[in-house]
Amino acid sequence: MKILVTGAAGFIGMHVCERLLARGDEVIGIDNLNDYYDVSLKQARLDRLTPHAAFRFQKLDIADRAGLAALFEIEKPRRVVHLAAQAGVRYSLKNPHAYADSNLVGFVNMLEGCRYGKVEHLVYASSSSVYGGNTKLPFSEHDSVDHPVSLYAATKKANELMAHTYSHLFRLPTTGLRFFTVYGPWGRPDMSPILFAKAILEDKPIDVFNNGNMQRDFTYIDDIVEGVVRVLDKPAAPNASFDKANPDAATSWAPYRVFNIGNNQPVRLMDYIEALENALGKKAVKNFLPMQDGDVQATHADINELQLAVGYTPDTPIAEGAKRFADWYRNYKQ
């Protein structure tokens, strides 16, 4: 099967590409290789993919309407995993236009490419951040997500609405995946695992927000990839029992689905730091700070719907995941 993966040089994108290639798919990867973080890390990820004969890469920005349309016309992918986006909650407070360009304009371009390319299934990255100010835990896809607390979250909510429109109007099967705090080897350097590991090994303090009173549904990358591929293999279908008088936010009369994809085992931030300390064999110097704007105190994924749909069952304990990450980080930095 020919599959287009956007954000192929990204953290999740590289791992998804590797998984698809390992099972024999043909993968077309695109990425704009922007400098939001170290481009050399993105290039190192690509270097793992390019030796595969079934992988082809094109440097392309999804905001490039004509370039993306030409790619769909030439390659004609059967299915699409759309992971390219301007990521980061805190950066959205500083550079909102980057989010509009990539996450809104770029997403419309992807939808149009899938529409005219008659793609069988579009799987795209949403985010746990869409739950915003919600305090009922665990977060469920059936809950309202109308109160985002960052522009990043608002763009991801907008993606879900835009996808539904195309599922309704053009019968394009779309599935949104709300990722919960993904970590592991080859992760993003702007996220806490690498920030913490780098500081700990350099004997520098780590910033611990909300005075450590935080909880995250840390999910190991291999578990995430397994879920993404299982979802890709099962195109979204209409909910035959959908009741428009009592609408279900997770499904539709159209071929549209939204799933949480997390660990369903939330971990206290201080416990995660301890697991990382143990994996690195070194204690952290902690700089306790108040909550940051746009952040939330806790996340916890209800993954029952994804389990029922595709048999998704994450099975990587935090101690094991932290060890695998720490082993990779030590080698990568050498």
Brief overview:
This protein has 334 residues and is an alpha/beta fold. The chain has ten helices and 13 strands.
Low-confidence runs: none
Q: What would you call the structural class?
A: alpha/beta
Mean pLDDT figure:
95
Beta strand count: 13
| Termini gap | 37 Å
Instruction: State the order of secondary-structure elements, H for helix, E for strand.
Output: EHEHEHEHEHEEHEEEHEEHEHH
Strand order of the largest sheet: 3-2-1-4-5-6-11
Q: Tally the helices.
A: 10
What fraction strand? 15-25%
Q: Characterize the overall form.
A: globular
Largest sheet, in brief, is: 7 strands, parallel
* Rounded radius of gyration (Å): 19 Å
Helix content: 25-40%
Protein architecture, described:
This protein starts with a strand and ends with a helix. The protein has 10 helices and 13 strands. The chain has helices spanning 11-22, 39-49, 65-75, 96-116, 151-170, 192-201, 221-232, 269-280, 304-310, 318-333; strands spanning 2-6, 26-31, 55-59, 79-82, 121-127, 174-179, 182-183, 205-208, 215-216, 219-220, 256-261, 267-268, 285-288. The protein is of the alpha/beta class. 47% of the residues are buried.
Which key phrases capture this entry?
alpha/beta; two-stranded parallel sheet; 334 residues; 13 strands
